[in-house]
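Let's inspect one such protein example.
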Amino acid sequence: MATSPKKETPSDGGVLQDKPTPAAAEHGDHDRIVMASRRADGSMDQVRPEFIGDKDTAIAAAKEQLAVQAVSAVDVAARGVSAGPADDGTGDSEPDAEVKALKEAQEKAKESAESRAEREVERLHQGLGD
């Protein structure tokens, strides 16, 4: 049985792009996610995101992400720090009044962030992704 040879097509002649243009990202597909990537301001860093998978897991992940980011932002804003105790062991004693006030501000920020996370997932969740 005779067969004809397969035609080779040039790799750059197809419809696939190695690097999608910003216009393609804006008008093409959207991102299907279980957990969002976040910008420094806490906003999602996806193109028209759609949460998939287990909704409770997505909510828990978003709450944790935004809560940690919000608490850290409060700490940095209040004290200008971004790490724990110093190498010499200082900074690990009982909290004073200033630290207590900071902790309260962090808790408020955490609650607000968790609420935001839940609203975000509720608005964008599309099911289990089947």
In short: The chain has three helices and two strands.
